[in-house]
Amino acid sequence: KIYSAAAAAAAITSTSSRFLSTESGGKKHRNIGISAHIDSGKTTLTERILYYTGRINSIHDVRGKDGVGAKMDSMDLEREKGITIQSAATFCQWKDAHINIIDTPGHVDFTIEVERALRVLDGGILVLCGVSGVQSQSLTVDRQMKRYNVPRAAFVNKLDRQGSNPWKVIDDLRNQLKLNAAAVQIPIGLESEHEGIVDILEQKAIRFKGDRGEVLEEVMEIPDELKELVEEKREELISRLADVDDDIAELFLMEEEPTVQDLKDAIRRQTLTCSFVPVFMGSAFKNKGVQPLLDGVLDYLPEPHEKANFALDRSKGEQEVQVTASSDDPLLALAFKLEETPFGQLTYMRIYQGMLKKGNHITNVNDGKKIKLARIVRMHSDDMEEITEAGAGEVVAMFGIDCKSMDTFSDGDMNFAMSSMFVPEPVMSLAVKPANTKMQNNFSKAITKFTKEDPTLRVKVDSETKETVLSGMGELHLEVYIERMKREYEVECVTGQPKVNYKETINTKQPFDWLHKKQTGGSGQYAKVMGFIEPLSEAERLELGKSNEFDNRCTGTNIPPEYYTSCEKGMNDAMVEGSLVGSEVEGVRVVLQDGASHAVDSSDMAFRICMANAIRDTMKSANPSILEPVMAVEVEIPTDFQGSVVAGLNRRMGMIQSSDMNDDGSGLKILAEVPLANMFGYSTELRSMTQGKGEFSMEYLKHSPVMRDTQEELMKRYKEEMEAKAA
Fold this sequence. Notes:
Radius of gyration: 33 Å
GO molecular function: GTP binding; GTPase activity; translation elongation factor activity
CATH superfamily of the largest domain: P-loop containing nucleotide triphosphate hydrolases
Main location: plastid
Pfam families: EFG_C, EFG_III, EFG_IV, GTP_EFTU, GTP_EFTU_D2
Distance between the termini: 86 Å
Protein name: Tr-type G domain-containing protein
Number of strands: 39
Family: Belongs to the TRAFAC class translation factor GTPase superfamily. Classic translation factor GTPase family. EF-G/EF-2 subfamily.
CATH topology of the largest domain: Rossmann fold
Structural class: alpha+beta
Shape: elongated
């Protein structure tokens, strides 16, 4: 039999009948995310899904010659670079089901977009390249899916490419991702001969005809050369299901043949519990395999009420409560993504239970603010469609709501909060400032907007260097935001590496005897201080709770007691700027033993200046050294790359503290201490060394002395800077 996409397009009727909630009229509902490694074909697959479901009338490719670009890549930057930067939402109709789809980025720098999409979705399609198989970001996406217990189907894409091998990909799924995966389809031909698929369950061949693969030709006869393979893969499928499903196991042990419906029911049951992953085949770019994948989404991925979601009851110490996914219950919705538009803030929201109706009031559980719903829209990439209401299980967007990402909303009666999502720590920083001071206002607006939109983008003004430092997930991540500032806010930015915050200390005990005398007519300035400075040990500093100590051991009134505090202030002044590179001084104990004063000329200021100059001068002869920040670095890599990664850390003057292998021996966690100054550019180096499979995080540990040659180089650079300023 032959049928086309026209039938699906004809089924699209008015808005009212098209967007019914999960429970109205028995209409099926799916919320799915499409996730994968960069360049596996996620956006291309979404484009084909939209075309076959009648949502768009023509297909445009990601880097197409027509220059239009894929529908879901709506940002100019996305179309230029040929990558997805922001997750984009859309919806479509397939047979009797309404499907919300979120297309997510594949690049590790934009991992938060995948994180928040998977947090609110009920099912996922893990797209894999038929040639490369499981790649680095596939591992990250798999970790994220497991974190939120997202049932998933896999789609082996690009089977038209040279070197494609779907069976190697399925082995990768089993060995690297530890998934119980089995094929439900077999490709008819590979590479240039790829023309369709065989459905293992229904034992039929499907070929894709027509200009855009919109006409499906179904034949109930399997090609002779594939019969043996189909039988082998069907037995493998039944065996894999029998391992996890009792009904199939019983039939398997009794040597009875399960029916098509038995197998479909078992696949659905085990996919929903994340115990099984059905694998589909095709080539999205060549328009093959997409419609059967959509059938698989309806057959095997969950309805909103079938995926368990939990809220935290704040009135009972954040006890977990399962949400009902019923439109008749009180409202519970989660704002999972914010976007600035010309019309104000657009808030993407997932409704877990209850209804959102235009004109109603909702309450932000986190701050108690009441908000009136002025406008509800359904997103189709960057296009919007106005609707008046939305029920449980829907993903919609709203204007006029001022909130943060991951705020929970109710209709006022409930004190429940949806649990938040995991936000990874930034790994790379960049000093940034506007090229022109006139742009400062727009620069501040852009920074405020971007940090509100993206929880992984952090900004801070360094209290010591006074630089604005942007921190993010990688070089591309920060580069995209700097480019967006230029395009959206017309702010040209000057960027550079942030200066490392060095510190100074002393290493030997040194006495001082300093006289400050100044006569300028009238009362002058007179003060004399005597004592010594000595280094403070790490243990003493921890015990004191401060980095320097002032110890007054004066007896008698050679220095009047009212000037003791001035002497301490003088010490603090001297600690602000050291003699080597002008950095803050730490680890010094100043002991004041004696001194002298003048009845007329001594004053607070005189003793303060005297003490500061005494310490500054004495520190030069107390064997001073420069301290640099050392980071605790945690690197996670596959075991194969251990040698090159350890060598790379050694090159960066890293000290390996420990190296632990995981249970199955496939991964390794290395803990090391590395100077921050040597960590710039490490994320790029690690990714290139490990084929993108390595990840690292770092946090401040301590300040340690630098090498002698580094100290001389830093002092020379500081001297040159001072001379340049003086000139």
